[in-house]
Amino acid sequence: MKKIFLIGIFSLVISSCENSKRERVQREGESDVIYVENEDNEMNQAIENAQKTFKKDFHSALISKNPDFSNFAIKQRFDTPEGGEHIWIGDIIFDNGKYHGTVQNEPVNPLNIKLGDEVVVNLENLSDWMYYDKNIVKGVYTVKVLRETMSDEEKKEMDSQGLIYE
């Protein structure tokens, strides 16, 4: 399974955290987790933008079979008692009207999925999408918001990949 650098940076958990607007938790050997309040307007706007642009931008690119396009991934919310955990699903294919892919993050909460599982995407729970157009990363609305929580070293590492975030 090919991991995309961007996906490995962090998972996202939407909850009713009362400590801070965005709380970062590091996991040894796993991607970091960012806890975000349900009422985080900036994150909610990013999710709404991803949903609005999905069909026109992501779906069109996926089915175009353009050789310049690669690393298609969808971030989906999985419901938890605390709210929801948003997990990247990579290696996306569209078959029989459904999107299929591989779970790219180890869930924080007990879920009925784990890293590497093959799943069918539930578009009702879509929270983000991405793909590469050569070295330009399309989508990643929530990642752009979460970049604020990254250390300077992580930003530098992310930028060193030679990718442009559009």
What is this structure's SSE topology?
Elements: H1 5-8, E1 10-15, E2 22-25, E3 32-37, H2 41-64, E4 69-80, E5 83-95, E6 98-103, E7 118-120, E8 126-133, E9 136-139, H3 141-146, H4 152-159, E10 164-165
Parallel strand pairs: 1-3, 9-10
Antiparallel strand pairs: 1-5, 2-3, 4-5, 4-8, 5-6, 6-7, 8-9
Protein name: YegJ family protein
Organism: Chryseobacterium zhengzhouense
Domain DUF2314: 40-161
Summarize the amount of helix as a percent range: 25-40%
**Overall tally of domains:** 1
Sheet with the most strands, sense and barrel status: 10 strands, mixed
* DSSP strand content: 35-45%
Give the ordered list of helices and strands: HEEEHEEEEEEHHE
Mean pLDDT: 82
Protein name: YegJ family protein
Pfam families: DUF2314
InterPro entries: DUF2314
Domain DUF2314: 40-161
What does this structure look like?
The chain has 166 residues and is an alpha+beta fold. The chain has one domain. The chain contains four helices and ten strands, in the order αβββαββββββααβ. It has helices spanning 5-8, 41-64, 141-146, 152-159, and strands at residues 10-15, 22-25, 32-37, 69-80, 83-95, 98-103, 118-120, 126-133, 136-139, 164-165. Strands 1, 2, 3, 4, 5, 6, 7, 8, 9 and 10 form a ten-stranded mixed sheet that branches. Strand 2 and strand 3 form a beta hairpin. The longest helix has 24 residues, at 41-64. It is globular, with a radius of gyration of 15 Å. Residues 1-10 and 13-20 have low confidence and may be disordered. Residues 40-161 form the DUF2314 domain. It comes from Chryseobacterium zhengzhouense.
